[in-house]
Amino acid sequence: MSRLFHGVLLICSLLPLSASAARPSTIPALREWTDGAGSWTFTSATRVVAGTDWSLATTAALLARELSALSGWAIPVVQSGTRAGDITLAVDSSDTALDREGYRLAITDRAAIQGRPAGVLNGTRTVLQLLKAGHTVAGGTARDWPDYRERSLMVDVGRKYFTMDWLRNLIAQLSYVKLNVLRLHLSEYEDCRLVSTRHPEMNRTPYEYSRAQIDSLQDLAAAYGVMIIPELEMPGHCCPMNPAVSFGSGCGLDLSKDTTYGFVADVLDEFVPWFRAPYWHSGCDEYGSINAPGMLEYAQAHYGPTANNRDTYLGFINYVDSLVKSKGKTLRIWADGAWGGSAVTVNPDIVYEVWNCCELLADTAISQGHYVFNSSAEIYYILGGSKPTGSRLYDFSVLRSFCYGVPTSRASKVLGAQFCIWCDDANAETEAQIAAGTHDLLRAFAQALWGSPKLTTDYAQFSSIIAALGDPPAVAEIPAVAVSPGRAASSPAVRQANAAGVTHVYDLRGARLIPRTQAASGLRIVAAPGGNAASTPVVVTDVPW
Question: Do 36 and 117 sit in the same domain of this protein?
Fold first, then answer.
């Protein structure tokens, strides 16, 4: 039986119009729900009322397009004049408990979502799920927010090439269940998936991503509230790097060579600017050359006579950190090798991602001043290898699943957790098989990471809710044209902005209007409340993180 047909059979029992007995069924479950009077009905006359706050322009355009795809009706975006049947979006930070991603949803004769911009977007995901039960939603009020700021999926595109269409559909799936980070593991023994113009020797296959493709993917991800964090492995797991600065096998950078550091600086100078997230991940795990010839001599020459060979490796991590910080980013690494030096201490501003029971435990890292992130190997989805069960993910505890755990008193130093798709046997599954195999697992993980009280403790019953809620509407293309400030007037976006007399842009980072000539990042023309990109364009800076 297909998931879609199964979902139709279950709608009446799992997604009742009356919420008097329980919270409405959503994934993740709503943290708080209070029954109310009346109901809201979604009809062909429904509008998205977004006000004049341009920070909601993209969310309003996205929601309108998704509702149109869901219903077949043309749902407009307007600025004002809310009426029965509408969906209203408003920025409101007065409820401080909601923080950045929380929201308040009130269902009366209309649906009203309030919160900060990221929270309002999350509220629209809830509305899409509520409409899976039918076009009438029972009255009530929800307050909802996550336990962890990062709820992540990692995809190993280094070992297996994934098409852009697959990644774009994945972003919509993540957003639908409020998973807000996509980590791209971009290099491995097989290839570096970013096309390098400075070091073409890094690229070994025709299956790589251009700057334009990465830009387009980040545009889409920003609209859906998903942060893309890049990972480019070094000094290990990097056969496709430069043989001139690698050991004989070519599968690890030779850290005893001064030329290696110049090469690394050049690679980061090329690729770090491609990405908008405040993080850069350099891997730094499973480096098998710590005891190689020259490592001890390099350490003692640079860090003093008491240094040991591990200090060369730890010093490299700090060197990468200095490069990444100079570009306004925070470095992240896998934590398994960040220990054992006698002269070098890893900078405490580096985020440690903990995946196993190594010599460096998460609680120890926190004591050293680091933020930590849970990437537990217990829940890896490995092509050709082990996979977690849905019930394991549904019962996943971020703090308890660290090796030896992290006490709740230190939870503020834990950023969140990550479900990883590792492609050890790249040909073991197709893209379609991976999507199907991880579909329900991601929903169980989303519930665990959001942390709200579960609708049911039984995973089998939760599986029925998964089937009933189904999938999000197809990927909605947000009208956007990327340009750079100061680019020639022949740029389509610049011509369009000039024709409309746009002299200022809305800076989402500072939540203010600034002269268009002062915009520091790429610009996009998006549909403005009350119009579309063709008739009333408004230029906004890209969504920052």
Answer: yes
Within a domain: 467: no
In a domain, 346, yes or no: yes
Cα–Cα separations (whole angstroms), residue 540 to 320, 482, 517:
32, 11, 12
pLDDT tens across 417-430, in order?
A: 999 999 999 999 99
CATH number at residue 224: 3.20.20.80
> What's residue 532's pLDDT?
43
Structure tokens at 315: 């010093």
User: Which CA distances in Å does 155 have to 3, 325, 380, 477?
Assistant: 24, 25, 11, 23
User: Does residue 479 lie within any of the structural domains?
Assistant: no
- Give the pair of three-digit tokens for residue 125: 């995901």
CATH number at 67 reads: 3.30.379.10
174 and 108 both lie in a single domain: no
pLDDT single digits (tens) 185-214: 998 878 889 999 999 888 888 899 999 999
Residues 36 and 131 in one domain: yes
Which residue type sits at 32?
E
Q: Roughly what angle, to the nearest 10 degrees, separates helices 3-14 and 459-469?
A: 110
Query: Residue 520 is part of which domain span?
Result: 492-541
Same domain, 127 and 188: no
Residue ranges in the chain whose pLDDT is less than 50: 1-21, 479-495, 506-513, 520-523, 525-545
Q: Which DSSP symbol is given to 178? A: T
The domain total for the chain is 3
Q: Are 524 and 482 in contact (CB under 8 A)?
A: yes
Q: 124 and 174, same structural domain?
A: no
Do both 431 and 516 map to the same domain?
A: no
Residues 329 and 406 in one domain: yes
The pLDDT value given to residue 18 = 35
CA distance 81 to 315: 60
Among residues 218, 215, 192, which one has the least CA distance to residue 205? 192
Residue whose tokens read 């975006």: 77
User: Within a 10 A sphere around the Cβ of 527, how many other Cβ atoms?
Assistant: 25
- Helix (H) / strand (E) element for 167: namely helix 164-176
Q: What is the pLDDT of residue 497?
A: 52
Q: Are strands 136-144 and 103-107 parallel, antiparallel or unpaired?
A: antiparallel
- Cα–Cα dist 120/90, whole Å: 7
Nearest to 264 by CA among 202, 221, 176: 202
Q: Residue 489's pLDDT is what?
A: 31
